[in-house]
Structures are given as structure tokens and as C-alpha cells.
Specification:
With 357 residues, the chain is of the alpha/beta class. The protein has a single domain, classed as Rossmann fold (3-Layer(aba) Sandwich). Helices cover 41% and strands 7% of the residues. It is built from 13 helices and six strands.
């Protein structure tokens, strides 16, 4: 425990030092965030859905309390935003105002996926396709503010496009045969191929809207989530069948990154190996060793029970509820995504190098 505390102090110092020495001016003009509950900052708050986190203990460590973030504090894109030098976090699309769209928008929605039907058993959500349609409207507004499509395009190509999608296509679709038939239609390789095929169309749509710098996050080892271990495993070990399915998707996503980098010479796509970072990074050893269960008391659906006190040592736990990482885990993932300690964690480069292209 003492070793982990020292490691966290070092990581914190590195992050603060990095931001300080490179000045306060943001390294990119804007950030656009696409994803699910790992990135949602409040878009689901007013939707008719069970996938909401706008109540305590969620946000217990966030300065203003619960916001709709599915963790105790900051998310991974929040840390990336800070690392890039932004004074304020990127607002959710649901709360966006015309005055701040030039800094970026967070479109992420809890329970959403690459496939439109993913998560529908939980209620309303904003699928990746709909998130991109929202972005299309924002692009039009930005072009109008800057004097036309040409000037808007010049501005938008300098921005970072953060995309973390696909977890729910497994957790809230393929791994739920009681609600969805995908696991009877596709074997794991076929399902991953179908997902990547649809994902590629969405990414091409973003490219056509002027996106040029893409950070694509691979999936976590979903079979190691507390919910999956308890409901689909033996209660102690990871569900390896689920992990194998996820790794097939991750491999295909990395291949897609290579394909797009060959195809689009004026853009750059990078792949963040979330599964490898979470399973092999020495900085996460302490979190893994004591964080195999959720920090908060959870309901039957794996979400935190409202107003029940979470664990005290949240900085030493990997998971806040049965699905989502703690702020501490998010911070370490952001650290590796931004400036990787080894090239195996990001491909073909990390975010810090992507921004200099």
C-alpha cells in the first residue's frame, strides 16, 4: 500500500509538472469526445434511462458533486483535457451553449454503443451514430462562427477527437443473450468484425466532417469487471471467454488504425491499448491487488446504491461500481494514453506525439 501511494504521488507530480512547464495555453484549440459511460459527463441526466450517475456517491470527489460522471471524480477524458492545458472541462452536449462550442463538446452517453440496439433494454441513450449527428450540427455552428466551412475546417483539423466506444456492445448486447440475439448469430470473431465494419463507417463520417487527429481507445478486459466476475464467472477469477472476445475486437481495431493511416494521408489515428495498460502496467499493481470488488455498495444492476457511503480508500481501488473505474484508475490510464512509458501501450504513438503532427 505504501508503494502504491508513492507511485501515485510520482504520477501526480509528473502530470502537474508536465502541465506547468509547457504553459497554460491549450495544446489544441478544442477536444471532441465520443463514447459511453466511461466518458459521459452528464448527457444521460435528463434521459429516460436507468444508466444515470447524477446522484451520490457518484461525484463524491468531484468539486461540484454529482454531475452524471460514472465515477467518484474525474474521468479519463477529463484528465486528458487538463493535461492539454484547458482551464475548464469539456461540457456535455446536453448543456452546451453557443459561446463555448469552440473549445469542444462531450457527446458521450452511458449505455451507448457502436450498434444502435446496444443498451436499449436500459432505456434511452445516444448511440455513436447519433453522437456524430450531434457533432455535424456543432460543426455547422462552428463554421458559421468562424466565417464559413473553409475557416471552420482549418480550425477543426487541429482539434483532438477522443473516441472510446465498444464496451457496451459486449456488456449490454453480446454478453446478454436474454435481451439480444447477437451471440447466437455471430461467433466472437464475426461479431468483432461486424462491430469494426460499423465503427469504420462512423469514423469515416467524422473524417468527412473535418476530424484529423483521432485517439481511439481499445476495450478494457471486460471479463475482469466485478459485475462479470460475479455474474458470469466463479466470483474470484476473470471470465476468460469474455476477455478473449474483447481482445479479438482490440486486435481488429488496431488493424483498422493501420488501415486508416495508410488510407488518409492528411489524418492520424492512434490506438490506446487499454487492456494492456490495465493488466500489465506496474503503476496499476496496487489497484489490481486490492481493487477486485466495487468501492461503492451496488444495486442488482451493478450501479451504486444511492446515498450509501463508498469505501474510504478510493484512491486504492480499481473500480468504483461494478462496471466503472475509480478516478485513480482513470488518472493512470490518462497518463499512459498521453505519454506512454512504452510503445506497446499506444500505437503508433501516444497522444502527446499525435498533437505535434
Amino acid at each position: 500500500m505504501k508503494r502504491l501511494f508513492l507511485v501515485l504521488l510520482v504520477v501526480h507530480a509528473v502530470i502537474e509538472y508536465d502541465c506547468g512547464v509547457e504553459g497554460k495555453k491549450p495544446k489544441v484549440p478544442c477536444i471532441f469526445i465520443f463514447g459511453d459511460s466511461l466518458s459521459d459527463s452528464g448527457n444521460n441526466n435528463h434521459l429516460l434511462t436507468s444508466a444515470k450517475a447524477n446522484y451520490l456517491p457518484y461525484g463524491i470527489d468531484f468539486p461540484s458533486g454529482p454531475t452524471g460522471r460514472f465515477t467518484n471524480g474525474l474521468t479519463t477524458p477529463d484528465f486528458i483535457t487538463r493535461r492539454l492545458g484547458f482551464q475548464n472541462l469539456i461540457p456535455p452536449f446536453a448543456n452546451i451553449s453557443d459561446s463555448n462550442i469552440l473549445k469542444g463538446v462531450n457527446y458521450a452517453s452511458g449505455a451507448s454503443g457502436i450498434r444502435n440496439e446496444t443498451g436499449t433494454h436500459m432505456g434511452a441513450k445516444i448511440s455513436l451514430g447519433l453522437q456524430i449527428e450531434h457533432h455535424r450540427a456543432i460543426v455547422s455552428q462552428i463554421s458559421g462562427k468562424l466565417g464559413g466551412p473553409e475557416k471552420g475546417g482549418e480550425y477543426l483539423k487541429k482539434c483532438l477527437y477522443y473516441v472510446n466506444m465498444g464496451s457496451n456492445d459486449y456488456l449490454q448486447n453480446y454478453f446478454l443473450p436474454q435481451y439480444f440475439s447477437t451471440s447466437t448469430i455471430y461467433n466472437p470473431d464475426q461479431f468483432a468484425e461486424a462491430l469494426i465494419h460499423e465503427y469504420s463507417h462512423h469514423l469515416r463520417a467524422l473524417y468527412e466532417l473535418g476530424s484529423r487527429k483521432f485517439a481511439l481507445f481499445g476495450l478494457f478486459l471486460l471479463g475482469c469487471l466485478p459485475n462479470e466476475v460475479m455474474n458470469h464467472g466463479d466470483g474470484t477469477l476473470c471470465v476468460e471467454e469474455e476477455n478473449r472476445a474483447v481482445l479479438i475486437f482490440n486486435d481488429k481495431l488496431k488493424e483498422l488504425v493501420n488501415q486508416f493511416n495508410r488510407q488518409f494521408s492528411d489524418a492520424k489515428f492512434i490506438y490506446i491499448n487499454t487492456a494492456l495498460i490495465s493488466s500489465k502496467s506496474p503503476l496499476l499493481d496496487g489497484l489490481r491487488s486490492i481493487g477486485k470488488s466495487s468501492c461503492c455498495q451496488v444495486r442488482a444492476d451493478g450501479m451504486c446504491d444511492p446515498n450509501k457511503s463508498p469505501c474510504a480508500e478510493r484512491n486504492l481501488n480499481m473500480f468504483f461500481d461494478s462496471f466503472h473505474p475509480t478516478e485513480a484508475a482513470n488518472k493512470l490510464l490518462a497518463t499512459f494514453a498521453y505519454r506512454s512509458l512504452h510503445r506497446i501501450f499506444t500505437h503508433p504513438m501516444d497522444i502527446s506525439h499525435l498533437l505535434h503532427l
